[in-house]
Amino acid sequence: MSRVKNIKDDYGFFGIGIINNTDEINIGTLWRSAFILGASFIFTVGKKYKLEGSDVTKSWTKIPLYHYQTFDELKQNLPFSTQLVAVEMGDEAMPLGEYTHPDRAVYLLGNEISGLSDQIVSQCQSLIKLPGEYSLNVAVTGSIVMYDRFNKNNS
Ligand SMILES: C[S@@+](CC[C@H](N)C(=O)[O-])C[C@H]1O[C@@H](n2cnc3c(N)ncnc32)[C@H](O)[C@@H]1O
Known about the structure:
Alpha/beta knot; globular; binds S-adenosylmethionine
């Protein structure tokens, strides 16, 4: 398995992570997708991660995982001029298909049980959602967002 190639020069960079995740398999799966689809890093907020069998590509050897104890710590350590993008269902959210990804973005996913709180969403620069009445698995959601970014930057 290898990483996507032919990414445009002005593609920027992105990271993706989950806040207070409950199932470590989802981090392993997200890490694998993130590496393959061109992320520069992934992260967890609130809960540390132990290596999982779901990451069969050994993504930990390819892109780093950062851990933040709190959402505030994540915000304080955002790369310069980088937008925080909340990924969550809701009437206020913009459908992913209509969304133009920022050059430099950090995508934040909610936990498997409670999702992202309104308080956290309100501190992000944008809010995007995938279609459907029911929530998708969090790692699947993150993978689709990254695929959308890849497609829009390479069309
Ligand atoms: C399994 S969902 C959380 C479900 C939670 N029980 C709820 O009712 O919100 C976990 C995370 O996946 C992401 N997610 C799942 N489906 C989504 C969708 N259709 N649009 C945007 N984000 C989604 C969000 O980041 C969400 O916080």
